[in-house]
Amino acid sequence: MGQILGLVNQKGGVGKSTTAVNLAASLVACGKRVLVVDSDPQGNSTSGLGLDKTGVERCVYDTLINGRGLDEVITRTCMDDLDVAPSTIRLAGAEVELAAGDSRETRLRSAMGTVSENYDFVLIDCPPSLGLLTVNALTASDGLLIPVQCEYYALEGLSQLLHVVDLVRGRLNSSLEIIGVLLTMYDARTNLSSQVADEVRNHFGKTVYRTVIPRNVTLSEAPSFGRPVLLYDGRSKGAEAYLRLAEEVIGRGKKG
Amino acid sequence: MGQILGLVNQKGGVGKSTTAVNLAASLVACGKRVLVVDSDPQGNSTSGLGLDKTGVERCVYDTLINGRGLDEVITRTCMDDLDVAPSTIRLAGAEVELAAGDSRETRLRSAMGTVSENYDFVLIDCPPSLGLLTVNALTASDGLLIPVQCEYYALEGLSQLLHVVDLVRGRLNSSLEIIGVLLTMYDARTNLSSQVADEVRNHFGKTVYRTVIPRNVTLSEAPSFGRPVLLYDGRSKGAEAYLRLAEEVIGRGKKG
Ligand SMILES: Nc1ncnc2c1ncn2[C@@H]1O[C@H](COP(=O)(O)OP(=O)(O)OP(=O)(O)O)[C@@H](O)[C@H]1O
Ligand SMILES: Nc1ncnc2c1ncn2[C@@H]1O[C@H](COP(=O)(O)OP(=O)(O)OP(=O)(O)O)[C@@H](O)[C@H]1O
Ligand SMILES: [Mg+2]
Ligand SMILES: [Mg+2]
Q1: Cα A245 versus chain centre, distance
Q2: Tens digits of per-residue pLDDT, B162-218?
Q3: Which residues of B touch A130 (CB under 8 A)?
Q4: How many CB atoms lie within 10 A of CB A52?
Q5: Minimal CA–CA distance to A12: which of B137, B96, B128, B70?
Q6: Would you say residue A133 has pLDDT above 60?
Q7: How confident is the model over B159-176, as pLDDT tens digits?
Q8: pLDDT class for B231, splitting at 50, 70, 90?
Q9: What strands, in cross-sheet order, belong to the sheet with A75-76?
Q10: What is the DSSP letter of A42?
Q11: In angstroms, what CA-CA distances link B247 with A228, B78, B83, B156?
């Protein structure tokens, strides 16, 4: 039974998509089967895994609005054992359409069906907002992985995010827990990064992953080749960090 | 009659709030009176201008949902001639409440009233989405300033953004134009930055500001002191870049 992990943070540009793509590839390198669900209309994790969005026919929009099962939209990526439920520009209309319909928060969970049994991990990439696309991911997830950029502004939205997680746990998904908080874009040359990292560790304690993702240019270059950093430059600091993270995520994985 | 500029881009973390705060301060340094309207529930530009959000009573939420005029929520900042219509956590509920009401796209424009006559520039900071908070800003604006981070993923969402701008121009705000595209977080040490910059210039031509904002740590340190970079480290490359940008923005300002 695979663990379903939502990658959430409404602060923009903190590394949600980069983590979805590179953690997925690293988990595969550790022998796991992984599915990435791209719930962000921007479709960055879809293109980061090598898909040409203009060529994609079925996408996550079809599961949320047209009632298709997630298994009907899943497609292969540039790596074996790594599949993706892609996003296209059509998803941009979903937020408003969901608001007008019924069971608007549970569509993704229903569409998931037994799909997670075919994978060891399912990673859901979310847009930078706390709207219905993200709430669907929170409702469908077993646990959450919260990327936090080592910057001052990134601290401000965390209490809002935790508030929404509590609401969803109370009304829609009672077993939802925060599996880990991931420090991203850590720049060892600045005091700011270590100050923010200390603040996050004070607040979240052991929930913060030991692995810290450094700011590393290979992580921003790899998407332009449609490859996870492991396939673009496997010896880079960025690739090494995500491999270490994968081992930690497996260690905290589902028991039994 | 002040020019109302919306800072929009649904891609997260591209420098919308950083530009709102620092362009505003630089315009003031050039002798202009400026208002920043913070339409993002994260409230980064509110805290970046030195306000303690927990102490704020009236905010943009009150203009969008409770029918108050924008002039009733405006407050001073750490700089003379620079005012802000702040955001608080209450704004997080606005998107859903707007969707349920009438004239949901034009509330900010109505609330603006004659406020823009008291300023030379009004800058509206937007959240990283194309939902109703951003559409309200597009409807209320004379023109748009689009920050684009010099990274590959930042290119992907531009066509969606332009599509929404066209829709708003067609149905809600016929005089809306793109005043400028701003390249941000340019890192001269990487090929990626110059490749992305070239691509953006090929697409937008002269609309791209000559001023390019470099990646500069003072820009991410200044918010933790609640100060624009001009007051935090006025001789830094970040401060100099936003001063040059202010001169360009004034040059492209309203005629007459
Ligand atoms: N550790 C890193 N080092 C250097 N660049 C990084 C790193 N992580 C992410 N990036 C780059 O920073 C930008 C933001 O990352 P990303 O798009 O993954 O964030 P996000 O949270 O998914 O953004 P959004 O909120 O728009 O969905 C991207 O251009 C990405 O390539
Ligand atoms: N030129 C720059 N150099 C270095 N850091 C920068 C620069 N511009 C912005 N930053 C930092 O990058 C992060 C993202 O910038 P910012 O928050 O302004 O983007 P945004 O588009 O407003 O994000 P959101 O989409 O969440 O609203 C912030 O932590 C900010 O301090
Ligand atoms: Mg993303
Ligand atoms: Mg912002």
Answers
A1: 13
A2: 999 999 999 999 999 999 999 999 999 999 999 999 999 999 999 999 999 999 999
A3: 92
A4: 10
A5: B128
A6: yes
A7: 999 999 999 999 999 999
A8: very high
A9: A75-76, A82-85, A34-38, A121-125, A3-7, A143-149, A177-184
A10: T
A11: 41, 22, 20, 29
Q: Collect all residues of chain B within an 8 Å Cβ-Cβ radius of residue A198.
A: none
pLDDT digits (tens, 9 = 90+) for B35-77: 999 999 999 999 999 999 999 999 999 999 999 999 999 999 9
Whether residue B256 is predicted with pLDDT greater than 50 in this model: the reply is: no
Q: Is A185 in the pocket of ligand 1 (CB under 6 A)?
A: yes
Residue B124's DSSP bridge partners are B6, B37
Question: Of A35, A34, A23, whose CA–CA distance to A60 is shortest?
Answer: A35
Regarding the beta carbon of A40 and ligand 1, being less than 6 Å apart is answered yes
Pairwise CB contact (< 8 Å): A157 & B42: yes
Place of tokens 């960090």: A241
Helices B132-140/B158-171 angle, 10° precision = 60
**What is the C-alpha to C-alpha distance for residues A219 and B75, in angstroms, rounded to an integer?**
41
CB B10 within 8 A of CB B147: no
What pLDDT is stored for residue B255 in this prediction?
54
Q: Which residues on chain A place their C-beta less than 8 Å from a C-beta of chain B?
A: 10-14, 17, 41-44, 47-48, 89, 92, 95-96, 99, 127-131, 149, 151-153, 156-157, 159-160, 187, 189-190, 192, 195, 217, 220-221, 223-224
Answer whether A131 contacts ligand 2 (Cβ < 6 A): no
pLDDT band at B1 (very low <50, low <70, confident <90, very high): confident
**Alpha helix stretches (DSSP H) within chain A:** 16-29, 44-48, 60-64, 94-100, 107-112, 132-140, 153-156, 158-171, 191-204, 217-221, 229-232, 237-251
The reported pLDDT for the residue numbered A254 is 58
Amino acid sitting at position B79? M
B71 CB under 6 A from ligand 1? no
